[in-house]
Here is the input.
Amino acid sequence: MGDKNKHKAHVGMLVHQYYPKDLRVRREAEALVEAGYRVEVVCLRAPKEPRKNREPYKDKVNGVQVYRLPIIRKRGKTFRYLYEYLGLMILGGLILARLHFSDPFQVVHIHNMPDLLVLAGMIPKWMGAKLLLDIHDPMPELYSLKTGIMQNYWIVKLLKWEEKFSCRLAHYVISVNNAMYKNLRYKGIPSKKIFILHNFPDTRYLPVKYDINRWPRHREGFVLLYAGTVTEHYRLDIAIRALALVIKDIPCIKLRIFGDGNELNSVLKLADNLGIIRYVEYLKPVDFDKVKDIMVDADVGITSHQGGIFGDIYFATKILEYLSQGLPVISSRTKTIVSYIPEDSIFYFEPENVSDMAKQIIEIWNNPELVSWKMENAKKILDKYTWQVEKQKLINLYQELLK
Here is the structure.
């Protein structure tokens, strides 16, 4: 490595995801590169797609050095996840150790899930590197949601121990919102050890539209947009059922789904069974810098995530993305969302309440003046909810670590 780079702090990252597909990891890595750090990311290697070459083992993306391991993500039973997690922990740990021996890391930054991936950074830590654990999702709550197992069941208790043990090994624990901070504090993690880094929109890719154009944007139709992953806890089935209720009042309506996930086929099948499949349109995922083009062609952004033990500590970043592009938003009213987005800036419905969501859709259709008023209010909060603000907080944390 050139002498001119030797003075820059060296950062290693490990993530159970493909890079640069994971936007949170990409944003953090590129922010550090922009600030003068040398960043190397160890991640999974995506399967080969038709008419595309397979991702290279070693790559450089916007200044970030990437190493991809021969492991792919695959949904399955518990043993499949254990295989992936254990394989990444061992192989990722070996890669991080090898990189550290040749050019020592000052910081090793581990992204969950699982939390125990932090063990892959122990050799660099023992040799002087600072160790960060970045908790994207809380494993005990997410597992409880997916399986329906109560919090006092032994396996959930084991996941809580795993989370607490992993947090103890790290110098700092990074998480995603204020509700997650309270959740970690409740579990016994010291407040001085927890750092909140929100996953807010990046204005480079989604520049805020402060001018509200004619609304609705389509005289001949009314387009609802869901942009995001289609999995169990995002409950897009609620939106499909609400759509079926409002068609008689808004016959020109359409629900556009932009994203992918293990529940996509189930959602589309539900629409077919309800006889409304012609009102549903599916768009394949595109590069993130093209998302704004999808949003500008819609009238309303929606999220129908469920509440409960996981939903109440989850923040739907897509809400801010919609608002930044001049879209009014219909959202489940959950504790964390309400703490960030006031009632005068959004259209809330009770989680998992189909008729209440349908009511909000009709309310928006019938009251363009109310829409304009809420959008004007939303503009007042957008400046403080951007990745540009959060990015500086991340740099400040690293500067504090390396004093």
Q: What stands out?
A: The chain has two domains: 3-200+387-401, 222-382. Residues 1-6 have pLDDT under 50 and may be disordered.
